[in-house]
Amino acid sequence: MNKTKKIFAISSPGGHWIQLTRICNGLEGRNQIVYAMPDKLFKAKKDQTVYSVIDVSADDKWKLIPCALQISYILLKERPDTIISTGAAPGAVAIMLGKLFGIHTIWVDSIANVQTISRAGRMIQKRADIFLTQWPHLSDGTKIQHQGSVL
Amino acid sequence: MIFVAVGTQFPFDRLIQCIDEWAAENNMPVHAQIASGKYTPQHASYDRFMTTDDFNEKLTSADLIISHAGMGNIITALENNKPIIVMNRQHQLGEHRNDHQADGLEWMSKLSGVYTASSTDEMCDLLNRKHELHGSEHHDMAQRSRLIAFLDQAINA
Predict the structure, then answer these.
(1) Which of A21, A137, B53, B87 is the most core-located residue (most Cβ within 10 A)?
(2) Which domain holds residue B54?
(3) At B117, is the secondary structure helix, strand, or coil?
(4) Whose CA is closest to A111, among A92, A128, A133, A91?
(5) Residue A151 domain-assigned?
(6) Which InterPro entries has this protein been placed in (chain A) (predicted)?
């Protein structure tokens, strides 16, 4: 099968990354995926492209600027068709930039956010083309959709 | 062997000290991943941070996983059919930047193979009956397949 679409998949390390890779494992067959995440201990598997980016949280806003520059560089170099993120702040930055560059964007809010949509998710809720929660009760049926979960 | 892991973002000394002391009393081999914790285990062997390969090796050779209430370790434990006990970080003790781990504890406890403790006392109670804890029996991937199918369709529409 032709790998038609190129996906840029980005998240924070830890739980966000585990969820992102579980989703992307299922997408790798039909799509080409380029990853980014902020963890120096992570070793990419063969045939995987994983960019390292600065780790940011919404608490240290000044770091968002170099992070945005790094992600802009990757987007311009890789020219993905779609951006997908499970959070948190680096993913939100990527979604905002994706909107700016006219790239299709998908947000999958972390399954850890049970009671409300995550803070990073709320920041980009209006900007993402597709915005998913992993919890049926957090869906509003239109803009915030529930279409399954990693667990 | 028990493998205890607190993630990479913050230390979780309250959990590490509890497990280390219980393990010393019960003469139980433990390996701990402690991040930037100030408390260094006296009984358990430990790493501050681990590569994914080292982490997976310790996890697969353990018969019980103990963790902060973070999704990454829960997903990994379930996928390997290991029982996992999670204890939530508390915002007021400076253990996380909010209390979302406490919010998650209730639904986590409904997952097969996942046991929850909201205090070190509850953790010790679970450890004292660790022979009764079992890994998830069947790990249902229907919701994950559904999510991936939706995304694949949306991406390639």
Answers:
(1) B87
(2) 2-155
(3) strand
(4) A133
(5) no
(6) Oligosacch_biosynth_Alg14 (IPR013969)
